[in-house]
Each structure stands twice: as C-alpha cells, then as structure tokens.
Amino acid sequence: MNVIERYIRYIIGGVFLAAGVIKFLDPEKTSDIIVFFEILPHEQAIAFVYLTALVEVTLAILLVIKVKPKWTGAAITGLCFVFVCISLLGWLNNWNLACGCFGRFSYGKFDGMMTLRNSVLLVMSAGVFYQSSKREALRKSQN
Questions:
Q1: Cys bridge to 45: 34, 57, 60, 101, which one at CB 3.0-4.6 A?
Q2: 128 and 75 in contact (C-beta within 8 Å)?
Q3: How far, in Å, CA of 118 to CA of 121, rounded?
Q4: 123 CB-contact burial (10 Å; exposed 0-12 / middle 13-18 / buried 19+)
C-alpha cells in the first residue's frame, strides 16, 4: 500500500470515526432531522442513529486496520454514495438546515459545498475500494 492510499484511509476513517462517536454522544441532532422529514418516529430515529453510529465507527476501524479491505471499501463507498445522493437532493430542494451528520457540530445547510465534500469522500473511498480489489485479484492470480 502506498503512502497516499494510507493517508486517504486515515482521512476517511477519521471522518467516519468522528461522525460515529459524535452521534453516540449526542444522537438528538441527527434524530431531529430524521423526525423532521417524518422518516421515523423519535424513539425509532434514536435507535437508527445509534445503529448508524455503530456502523460508522466499525467501518472506520476496519478501514484503518485493513480488515477485509475489499468489503470495507465497498461498504464505505456505498455509504458515501448515499451521502452524495442525500446532499444533492437537499441542495436541489433547497433544504435550509444542517444535516446532523456531526451532531451538534453540524453546520451550514444542504448546498453545493456539502455535495462537494461528500463527492470528494466518495472519490477517495472509491479509490481505496479499487486499490483493495486490485490487490485481492492480484493475490488470487498468484495462488
């Protein structure tokens, strides 16, 4: 693994770890967004936020320590794709609220910058997934 890929893994892992830990410590901000859009009632929204936080923290750790790198890369890339879609939907529909992704530390609104940040994470995670897949295919061909 080259140095750039390692740093990208650390950056993505750090973002996912921070988002997950903040959701664990303060699930209300994110659950308020879920309730606002009438996706789930409050109690279920809180449970969903805790589950999301658990997934984010787990994937962050797996990504950084390179456990099941192809699977982890695919899962993170899939989540980043969902994040891009949600931010794009919010931007196009002019949702004037913070996403709640980082709990009370969320700022701004659904706009072009949020979509750009999520798109950069998507490209970075897709690169990690591609490199992991390439390495696994090379390993299999050598056996």
A1: 34
A2: no
A3: 5
A4: middle
- Give the three-class secondary structure for 80: helix
Cα of first residue to Cα of last residue in the chain, in angstroms, is: 20
Question: Whose structure tokens read 């309730």?
Answer: 35
What is the rounded CA–CA span in Å between residue 72 and residue 128? 10
Convert the pLDDT of each residue in 58-93 to its tens digit. 999 999 999 998 999 999 999 999 999 989 998 998
- What is d(CA 39, CA 45) in angstroms, rounded to the nearest whole number? 8
CA distance readout (Å), 67 to 58, 59, 99, 102:
11, 9, 30, 25
Nearest to 101 by CA among 88, 118, 89: 118
d(CA 18, CA 20): 5
Angle at 82 between CA 27 and CA 111, to 5 degrees: 80
